[in-house]
Amino acid sequence: MNKVERIEREFVRALRMYPMSDELYNDYAMFLYRHKNDYNMAIKLLQKALRINPQSKIYRYNYSKIINSTKARFTNYHNFLVFLIFGIMVWLGFNGYNNLMNMASLFLLAQIIMNYQKNMYRKEKSVLW
After folding, report:
1. 29 vs 18: CA distance, rounded Å
2. Which of 13, 42, 48, 107 could form a disulfide with 32 if both were Cys (CB 3.0 to 4.6 A apart)?
3. Given pLDDT bands bounded at 50, 70 and 90, which one contains residue 23?
4. Is the distance from CB of 51 to CB of 35 less than 8 angstroms?
């Protein structure tokens, strides 16, 4: 058993002993975020910490940090997909598949419009805790 697994086991044991400890939930969430890249569980644990202590600015900051990093990962995957589709469109165009290229270009245009709208919505709705 490596060091990370031992620490995780100790967090679980501590949470069984102190199930209402918001600090433990926060610390365990940040441990999972930093060392295991388990974003989903970290978000759930921070939500529990915030239910226990909704006034904590540290928990809110950590929660928004994890949420934003998951959004950034999703955006990177989405940008890669758009780039891949663009590459396929170029390949289709050079090889004479005009109908497929037209469909792919419509899809790419829809993706660009959705990204623009999402970014505009984010700018309008940017609310700090």
Report:
1. 15
2. 42
3. very high
4. no
> Rounded to two decimals, what is the model's pTM?
0.59
DSSP string, 2-61: -HHHHHHHHHHHHHHH-TT-HHHHHHHHHHIIIII--HHHHHHHHHHHHHH-TT-HHHHH
3-state SS of the chain: helix, strand, coil percent to 5? Answer: 85, 0, 15
Structure tokens at 100: 């497929």
Higher pLDDT, 79 or 117: 79
The label of the residue with tokens 């501590």 reads 14
Q: Residue 16: pLDDT above 90? A: yes
Query: 7-39: b or e for each residue (b if 16 or more CB lie within 10 Å)?
Result: ebeebeeebeeeeebbebbbbbbbbbbeeeeeb
